[in-house]
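Last lecture ended with a question: if I hand you only a sequence, what can you say about the shape of the protein? Today we answer it with a concrete record. The protein is Helix-turn-helix transcriptional regulator. Below, first the input exactly as provided, then the predicted structure, then a couple of comments.
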Amino acid sequence: MRQTSFAEMQCSLARTLEVVGDWWSPLVLRDLYLGVDRFDDLVSDLGISRNLLTSRLDKLVTGGVVRRERYQERPPRDRYLLTGAGRELVPILLTLMAWGDRWATPDGGPPLGVRHRTCGHVCTPRVTCSECGEPLRAEDLAPVPGPGGRPGPGTMLIAQRLSVGPGAAHRPRR
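The predicted structure:
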C-alpha cells in the first residue's frame, strides 16, 4: 500500500520523511555506512525482498542520499554508496540507535557501538547545540518561525501557534 506523500508539505521534517521515512530505508542506510553496499549482500543482511529493496534503493538514489556505482559490466552489477547528504544522516541514525540502546535494548545489550575516531573513545551519539555544544533536551528548546515558515499542509496550526505573540513558541502544548 502506498503511503501519503509528504513532498508538497511546507515542513523540512515531512520532506525528509518523504525520502527516508519508511521502515527499511534507515536500515539500508545503516548497512551502507557499515560497508554492506552490494544488492545481494543487502538482501542477505536485512532479510528484505528483492523487489522491496529495489524500490527503497531507487527512492534513496532519487532523493540524493545514495548513489549507484557500477562495479561489473557482465552481468551488470552495482554497489550503492552514501552521498554527502547520506553521510550527514549517519550521526542522526546513530543517535536513533543510541535511543534504542537506552529504551529498546535487545536481549544481551546493544549489538553495536561506535568509536569516535578523533578522540579514540567508544561514545554514545547525542544531539547537541550547534552554538554552545550542550546536549539538547525538549524542555530546553523553544521553536521559532523560520524564513520559509507559512501555513500549509503539515504546518497549518504550527504556523498559527508560532505567530500568536510573545512567549507562544516557549509553551508547546502537551
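Comments.
1. The first helix runs from residue 12 to 20.
2. Confidence is low (pLDDT under 50) at residues 164-171.
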